[in-house]
Write a structure and sequence with these properties.
The protein has 329 residues and is α+β, with helices and mostly antiparallel strands. The chain has 9 helices and 12 strands. The protein is 40% helix and 19% strand.
């Protein structure tokens, strides 16, 4: 398969020494994944990874993933591939593309004693203890993100807010409730529970004057969709030894513990992982409410999966909300 002129221009590639082939699968149902193979001027082979998709949904998703990858990569360069760009294919403008470092995956995550490179727990802790960059036009770090990001196929609004509780209540819980109602129809019980959680539980449990002895949460870059299927061991751009890496992010500037919600929901990150992680990134005060905060953040992903797939995810969401409302409202 020939390289599209838009991608050849972006990467400064010689089309005569470059080929494109299918490679693996994509999280987005309508996306295709491909490998670009080229030769440099000194004759060495170099590879890139590319996603393509059709329509406005793909354009939004790839713009968000480009910004997400580079936000993670800028904070911890060995954590994930770098993205080189996104845009429209020149030969087929109805299709969008995203081009990143090629990630050669090779197996399961490591333990701290089995590799010279830092394990994922330490890399994630480093990400979560570095203040998020100050957005353009603002004088301080904010909660949000400079692009819409997609968790699964759900496009998430990331308009900036100074308050983490406000961002989580409005940009995550109330937003995904509307997405669920679009997909599954009106549901008074679910709406009442989500509304009570957003209006009563959120201020009580993660309110700005409550966390960290009144200091509130610090905005940090989070992956945003870190279930075990988005983490592995591999080599970025063919460089060095294999090490723990992540991919397919849905980033935002958030409370660090927000990351733990989906990690808990789907498992794959056991007690030893979390123990090592928290040695480098301590639990937020009050520590006694840590489990409830993680459950509150897990709630969003139950609601999002209900919006995307329906079915049994509703019961998981309802169970979490009833417990939290009983305790904190």
């Amino acid at each position: 398969m020939k390289i599209d002129p838009a991608i050849a221009k972006l990467l400064s590639l010689d089309a005569s020494t470059t080929s494109v082939s299918s490679h693996g699968g994509a999280g987005m149902s309508s996306a295709s994944t491909l490998k670009i193979t080229t030769r440099t001027s000194d004759g060495e082979e170099k590879q890139y990874f590319m996603k393509t998709g059709t329509g406005n949904e793909a354009e939004i998703m790839f713009k968000g993933e480009h910004a997400s990858l580079n936000a993670l990569h800028n904070a911890v360069p060995t954590l994930c591939p770098q993205s080189f760009g996104h845009g429209k294919l020149a030969d087929n403008p109805t299709k969008s593309f995203l081009v990143t470092d090629f990630l050669d995956l090779s197996g399961r995550l490591t333990s701290s004693s089995s590799s010279s490179a830092p394990p994922l727990a330490q890399k994630l802790a480093k990400l979560h203890t570095a203040p998020a960059p100050i957005p353009e036009g603002y004088s301080q770090p904010m909660f949000g993100f400079p692009a819409v990001t997609c968790c699964g196929d759900t496009p998430q609004p990331n308009d900036y807010k100074e308050s983490w509780a406000d961002f989580y209540a409005k940009n995550r819980l109330m937003f995904v409730l509307k997405q669920s109602e679009k997909s599954n129809g009106s549901d008074k019980e679910l709406r009442d529970l989500v509304t009570s959680t957003a209006e009563e539980v959120v201020p009580r449990l993660i309110g700005d004057s409550h966390l960290n002895n009144g200091k509130g949460a610090m905005p940090v870059v989070v992956h945003g969709d870190l279930w075990s299927g988005n983490a592995s061991r591999g080599r970025i751009a063919g460089q060095g030894d294999a090490q723990d890496v992540v991919f397919d992010p849905s980033a935002c500037y958030a409370h660090s513990e927000y990351e733990l919600g989906i990690m808990k929901m789907f498992g794959g990150f056991g007690p030893s992982f979390l123990k090592e992680y928290h040695q480098h990134c301590p639990k937020t005060e009050p520590v006694g409410e840590y489990e409830d905060r993680v459950a509150l953040y897990e709630l969003y992903h139950h609601l999002n999966h209900h919006a995307l797939f329906g079915g049994g995810y509703r019961s998981g969401a309802v169970s979490i909300m009833r417990k939290l409302i009983k305790k904190y409202s």
